[in-house]
Structure formats: C-alpha cells, structure tokens
Amino acid sequence: MSARSPVRSRSRARLHLSVAGLAASAALAALVQPAQATGTPPSPDRALQKQLNDLVRTAGGPPGVIALLRQGDRTAVYRAGVADTRTGRPPRTTDHMRIASVAKAFSGAVALRLVDRHKLDLGDTIGEHLPSLPTAWHQVTLRQLLSHTSGLPDFSTAPAFIEILQEDPRHHFDSRRLLDFVADKDLLFPPGSTYEYSNSDNIAVALMAEAVTGEPYERLLGQLVYRPLDLGQTSLPQGYRLPRPYLHGYDVTPPAPPEDISEVLSASGVWASGGIVSTPKDLNAFVRAWAGGRGFLSEETRRQQRTFIPGAASEPAGPGVNAGGLAIFRYTTRCGTVYGHTGNFPGYTQLAVGTADGKRSLTFSINTQTSKSLKPELLAKVRAVQEDFVCALLRH
Fold first, then answer.
1. Is there a contact between 91 and 77 (Cβ–Cβ < 8 Å)?
2. Using 50, 70 and 90 to split pLDDT, how confident is the model at 43?
3. Distance between the two ends of the chain, CA-based, in angstroms?
4. What is the pLDDT of residue 8?
C-alpha cells in the first residue's frame, strides 16, 4: 500500500472502532514453533504451547502470538502462528511492534523518575506547569493524571480527531497539541473522585515532564528509560512506518483473509499515550524494572506508585482481578499477583507484567486488536490464556 492509497472500506469501519478502543486468512494454518529458551530454561510446557496453537486457530483470532517468560536469568519463549502472513515466518523476540497503551507505563516511568529527582511532585498541578491549558483543568494533579482520576476528556474520542483519522489515517498530528481537540471541554468529574481511563492523561504527563526539564519527551525517554535499561530497539516514532523487522498487525474479520494494517496509522496521533514501538525482548526488560526492579524507583515513590484503586482496569483488562495504581496495574490471578500494563491498537494487543521484586516478567503479544468493545469473546479467551502464563511464571 502506498503512502497515499486509501484504506479499504472494511478497514475504515474497523478503524472507527479501533480509534474508540484507544480510549477505550482463509484457512490460515498455524505455524507452530517449539518453545525456545536461553540461560537454563524451564522445561517447555506443552499445555501452554497448545493454548497458543488453539488461539491462532480461533476464528477471528490473531495470525500470530509470542510470549516471553523470564525467571531470574532464565528466559523461555513460546510462539505460534506467523508474524507475517505473506512470508509465513514465525514471531521473534526482536520483532518491532506497537505496544499501544503500554506506552503509558513509559510516560509514568519518566514522570516518577523525575519525582525521584525532585523535578516533579505528585501534587504538582496542570496550572503550575501548563498554564496555557484550560483554566478548568488547572487543579488536576500529576497523581490524578497517572491514576486516571483527572476527569480530563479523552482527545481520542473527540469527533474532530476521529474525522481526521477517517479521512487520512496517516495524518501527521502535532503531538503536543492533541489536547486542543478537547480544550473547549470542562472536566468530566471533580478531580480525584472517579476512575476513568483517558488517553489525554498521559499526553498531559509528557507535557509536564517537558515543562519542568526543558527537554523533549523523546529525549527524556532516552535519558530516563531507554539507556538505563539498555532498550536499544525501543522508540517513539512520529510517522506510520515501523522499524524492520516487525511483527505485522492485522485486521482479522472472517471470512475475509487477515488484512495487514501495521502501517495504516500515524503514531503522532497517540504519542505518549500509545505511540511507542518496542520488541518483546525490550518490553520484557522494561516491565521487569517498572514492576519492581531495584534502583529504578525510590522506595517512597514505589510505595506511591502501588497505591491501587480496586476494580480500576487497564484497556483492555488484564488477567484476573484488576486494580489501578500510578501508570501501573495490579493483576491478581488464581496463582498470585503481577504488576504491569496492557494495551490495544489497530493490529495489536499487548500484556507486559512483572513480579513485585522485579525478578520475573512476562510479555504476551498478539497481532490483532481486541478490547471490551471489539471482539469481547476473543478478549475473554486471551485473558484466560494470559492467566495460565502468569501461573507458569510464578510457579517455577
């Protein structure tokens, strides 16, 4: 598809659902790869592998899936299906992919590391650092932005924003002006009174970080997150192209064959709320530090991070019972508790979690989108499989 070619009508209809979901093949044979590992791996779990095989054979399910489990210095990789339906190659841990709303954990990491450096405080307000934003928003605090209790209206559901994407999915937005789409709106509720997931929150977080440092958010990501964690394959692009090689993302709407939509949308329209591109390997390293890596955050900031709102779910919901903290979610499963974030974006659904001590981590990536409003039956199946993988992560 050329840069100027129109999105097919099926994808336009799907795109409308997918954009809302940001705030919210013909007989494809599964190419099954055995579990692979580095270090001293645990024995491959055939039951887990079978679940992935079944997932890619599900009608409307993903063409491919890859799960990376890390326990101490041991890494096990499970995969099924394909990263690219054209070539039939399997997913790899070094494939680039859109991590969707897991990017919110990265903006949280920038903000909380700045808190540790006394550049920001969780009680700092929009009015203090971003006075040009609507006066009605000025009392919203950094803490409320990170916990999705701010009341900021979600720019990604604004009719004008959606209209632009429908007309030109690759439109290049000024990422730092995304909140202009809702600047004429009042808060949806008094700050701190209600939990409501909003893409606007993390745009404001990134803008606050820029305001107090004088540095672009992209540079702050490099200084505070990428370099300390050696995330050499993680980036925040502005355009629609993905670095090669990449895990292709698909619109799967049977009986039509999967349609590659990996590069349909420009990342500029989601920026700090969902634009980061990473790999399973890099994402796993990040979530290990974010969930509990020693030295990544101070003990006091970590305590603040883990002040949870019961029932507050990420989008889409993760495995088990969900609760929301500061740019991190707690997932209480039948086998124990992990911490992290989920995300969905046209062509991708992500889970990245780790244990509270940072010693165990799991990333689980599929190359189609699902959410509570888009293929809810598939989401239920994915969550069940994710919970079994969490159990495997915790039991060895």
1. no
2. low
3. 46
4. 42
Q: What distance in Å separates the CA atoms of residue 263 and residue 1, rounded to the nearest whole number? A: 9
Of the candidates 65, 79, 83, the residue with the CA atom closest to the CA atom of residue 246: 83
Nearest alpha-carbon partner for 145 in 80, 95, 102, 199: 199
Please give the backbone phi and psi of residue 110, each rounded to the nearest 5 degrees, phi first: -60, -50
Residue 139 to residue 104: CA distance in whole angstroms: 21
> If you search the block for the tokens 């924003």, which residue do you land on?
161
Tell me the residue length of the chain: 396
Predicted confidence (pLDDT) per residue in 282-332, tens digit:
999 999 999 998 899 999 999 999 999 999 999 999 999 999 999 999 999
Q: Of the candidates 262, 236, 270, 263, which has an alpha carbon nearest to the alpha carbon of residue 161?
A: 270
273: its two tokens? 């709320």
Give the full edge-to-edge strand order of the sheet including 329-333. Answer: 33-38, 74-81, 64-71, 360-366, 348-354, 336-345, 329-333, 321-324, 309-310
Residue in 319, 321, 305, 370 with CA at minimum distance from that of residue 100: 370
H or E element, residue 324: strand 321-324
Give yes or no for a cis peptide into 255 (omega within 30° of 0). Answer: yes
> Exposure of 46 by Cβ count < 10 A (0-12 exposed, 13-18 middle, 19+ buried)?
exposed
Q: What is the pLDDT of residues 75-108, one digit of tens each?
A: 999 999 999 999 999 999 999 999 999 999 999 9
